[in-house]
Amino acid sequence: MEDAVTVDLMHDGMYHDTLYVRGITGFTYQTPPQLGNSTLLYFGTDTNGFQNPFALFRISNTSITTPVKTLDSFIDTTTEIDSAKFVMTFNVDSITTDMIFDLFYFPDDGDSIFNESESNYLNLTENDLYHGVFVSSSTLSQQEPDDSLSTSSFPTLSFDIAHILSAFLDTSNDNPNHTVMVKPQSNLTEVVAFKSRESGFTFTPQIKVFSDDTAFVDSTGDSVVTTISHTFISTDDLSLIIPPDIIYDNPNNVYLGRGMAYKAVLKIPNLDSILLPRQATITQAKLSFFYNNDTSQSNFYLQLEPIIDSVSTAELEGLLLDDPLTTEPSLIAVNLSSSGKISLDIREYIQLHHFGYIQNQGLKMEVANTVSPFNTYSFFIENLDSLAPKLIIHYVAPK
Amino acid sequence: MSLLNKYIKIFILIASISYGQDVYSAYGVGELTFAANAAVVGIGSSGLMPSFQENISLSNPSTWLGIPFAYLSVSYGGTQIKDRNYDYNNMLSGLNQFQFILPIKGLFAVGIGFQPYSSQLYSLSGNNIYEKFIEGDTLTINKAINGSGGISGLIFSLGAKITEKEQLGLKIEYLFGSNRRQTVFSIKEDEHDLDYIYNQRNIYNGTLIDGYFSSNRFSFGSRKLFLSGKVKTVLHPLRINHFSFQPFEDSNGNGYYDIADYPRPTGVDSIPPAPIDTLLSNQISPFEYAFGFDLELTEMIHAQGEISLWSDLNDRKTNLTSGLNQRILAYQHFNIGIIRFARALPRIWHESLHFRGGIIHRSYELENQLFANGQSENYNINDIGLSIGFGIKFGVTKNQIDFGINLINRSDSHNSDKLITNFNIGISIGDLWFVKRRVKQ
User: Fold this and answer.
1) For the structural domain made of B3-124+144-182+200-243+276-430, what CATH number should be given?
2) Local structure of residue A338 (DSSP, 8 states)
3) How far apart are alpha carbons A96 and A188 in whole angstroms?
4) Is the pLDDT of residue B176 over 90?
5) pLDDT band with cut points at 50, 70 and 90 for residue A274
6) Taking CA atoms, what residue in A is nearest to B129?
7) Among B138, B193, B196, B326, which would you mutate to test the A interface (most chain A Cβ atoms within 10 Å of its Cβ)?
8) ipTM of the assembly?
9) Given pLDDT bands bounded at 50, 70 and 90, which one contains residue B215?
10) Which of B125, B126, B198 lies closest to A398 in CB terms?
């Protein structure tokens, strides 16, 4: 192995350089909010006017407990069903007011009442659910700890469904219905949240079926009967959200929010004209934004995805029924906000654009994983230079 | 103006047989191999004058008419470069020459051989770590450049007698080969330290032609004087297929481009794009002429001297991309020495030995193109050295084992404490070819 020779290589081989890209523009567009993948289910009306009238659940036909059973297997008359409950878990560990909720089911409507990723307040209203049959009510309640050292469990809603379980067990129906709806018995003046299936198996909305089983029989005929719990979790759940009729229209800003379903299209017109060396490798492409730092709002994740197809501004005006933008999810860039400024590294997008593998159709911009879906965030776009978005590209290239 | 244009073309000729690891090895096509066999190393010449045996040089086909036997010659050599100022010590060795020479009735001689034309092996690290401050971030940047490879020559030679005292020689050198070069660009930001690697590859081909002339028509008093000259030029310009690969971020730090790196390589829709293939034609136009003498002092002792001048006639701003930021403009070589040849019919053991010794001086004129305004600064490198060697002749067919060594001190404007040691050992087997042999009854 030879020793390395130390020489002046300042001007040889490769170099590093930086490009500043300005003139970035953007505009907001709006679609119906879809919170199907949220970890929480909401009920009630927010102070900003967001309404959350009901939630829908589709229950799995197969249990997650051992022994694994299917709902229709309970039709076997040798198994005696003790009780059956539909259980939801509150998101906070204490109750401040009494709340009563009603449970409905849909014995005549098949199993395609809602779609977790597509249903919204425009294509699914309470009028569409008038076939819902009342099952039972439940008051939000909390079990007291066994002793002072134990912690309280989360409050739950527990609906009795034993009397309608046979509808779920019907094997003669080719399109069995395993959907239920929960809504507050009276209007809630504040928003309350329950854990959704995305929060994990333990707290996911679920049906619990308790059945008796003979666990032991001896030669004299004496027997021991035990009660077994079978859990069938929710596979789809959705709380519908109806946004208020507020219009954010400052042209110097773009607005993002999950509840309002505000998204934005970001344009970097100068990207096609920047002169990167042919074999430049992007080491960093930091796209920075400034936003109104409302301290009452929690931090949020900002997400950018390259838009694949060309869409005109006119096509994105008004409240859209569906999001018309198709994006490249493999090039998603996400980062957490911090005190009025957020920066995202979009170097893969810039690199592929430089290689000619992706066109500069803009970037779809939205917030994700906010603590509350009811916050709306305002980003500066057409502002003073110091607050305008800017893109700084670092690259290395051969000399 | 592209900085590529500041890089060299070049043939850098540093030590007559040295091609070891040094910064000079990174210039252009690397260090040229001038003297590929041990006899030439022993006298310190470039191979023009006869040093293998009396009136015979393995490198000069115009001296082959006097060879009594066909020769198959193989030599092995090495170079050590020790720099006390910068505290490095490198060594490289390898096969230097394979050659077959066939004399035909004393009127002609043909030869075919294979030898390295130039070699590169270098590992350079930057002496200037620098910092950049961008938007509140501090980037610490350093570089390293590694390379290896070289050009080989397939050589066809012809010698012919034109008068009783004059001979001509011709060499056609078909050059082929490749080299690879890797630049490692390190960027450190906070605790993150990443290397960006840029690979290049050159594939060479071209043809050179050498013309030789030798005469023993003259004398110096009663002493025989042998004179020889050489002209080398380009027959088919050296073409370079240069492949420039997309630089990549060595994310997993293994030094290779793989799926964990960036831009992430994918299958059919190749990311990154294919390397840029550039055909660089007529990049190097070496022209060299040399002259030498051999004066017979006694029956066995000869004094020899050579002088040669080399220059690159292609003085345009070429963009040979494998070089550093220097190019060689010209060099001059001079050596003088004494050889005691073995006696044709030795009577005692030491009369079977050749002894060679001499002094070498070479100077190189380099252009250092460091300045962005296009201004360049020339500087010189000087080599002064001693050479010594011996050969052992044995067998009826004048087989021979040779050994030679050079000790060279190299100095330039930056460094004067560099010691280069070249050694070479060779064996040449003689035989009679194409002779009718009667089968014993």
Assistant:
1) 2.40.160.60
2) B
3) 13
4) yes
5) confident
6) A10
7) B196
8) 0.78
9) very high
10) B198
CB contact under 8 A, B126 and A397: no
Q: How many angstroms separate the CA atoms of A355 and B403, rounded?
A: 56
**Residue A120, in any domain of the structure:** yes
Maximum alpha-carbon separation in chain B: 98
Choose between B409 and B93: higher pLDDT. Answer: B409
Q: Is the pLDDT of residue A206 over 90?
A: yes
**A396 CA: distance to closest CA in chain B (Å):** 8
Residues A228 and A284 both lie in one domain? no
Q: Based on the fold, state whether residues A89 and A114 are members of the same structural domain.
A: yes
> Which residues of chain B are within 8 Å of residue A12 when distances are taken between CB atoms?
7, 143, 145, 183, 324-325
Please tell me which residue of chain B has the smallest CA distance to A18.
Answer: B134
Give residue B10's pLDDT: 30
- Identify the residue among A6, A276, A353 best suited for mutation to test binding to B, counting B beta carbons within 10 A and taking the highest: A6
B251/B265 Cα distance (integer angstroms): 12
If asked whether residues A217 and A361 sit together in one domain, one would say: no
- pLDDT digits over B116-163, tens only? 888 888 888 888 788 888 878 888 999 998 888 889 999 999 999 999
Provide the domain limits for residue A86.
40-239
Residues A253 and A203 in one domain: no
Mutation site, A1, A2, A288, interface B, largest B CB count within 10 A: A2
Residue A3: list chain B partners with CB under 8 A.
Answer: 21, 87-90, 123
Both A78 and A221 in one domain: the answer is yes
Structure tokens at A178: 């395993």
Measured between CA atoms, how close is A281 to chain B, in angstroms? 6
Please name which of B132, B245, B128, B241 lies closest in space to residue B183, comparing C-alpha atoms: B245
Residues A22 and A92 in one domain: no
Contact criterion met (CB below 8 Å) for B400 and B391: yes
Looking at the structure, do residues A283 and A313 belong to the same domain, yes or no?
Answer: yes
Which pLDDT score is estimated for A169? 75
Domain boundary at A208, A223, A239, which? A239
Are A47 and A111 members of one domain? yes
Q: List, for residues A69-84, the tens digit of each pLDDT value.
A: 888 777 766 677 888 9
Q: Which residues of A touch B126 (CB under 8 A)?
A: 6-10
In a domain, A346, yes or no: yes
Q: How many helices (H) and strands (E) does chain B have?
A: 1, 19
- The three-class DSSP label of residue B17 is coil
How many domains does chain A contain in total?
2
pTM for the predicted model, two decimal places: 0.78
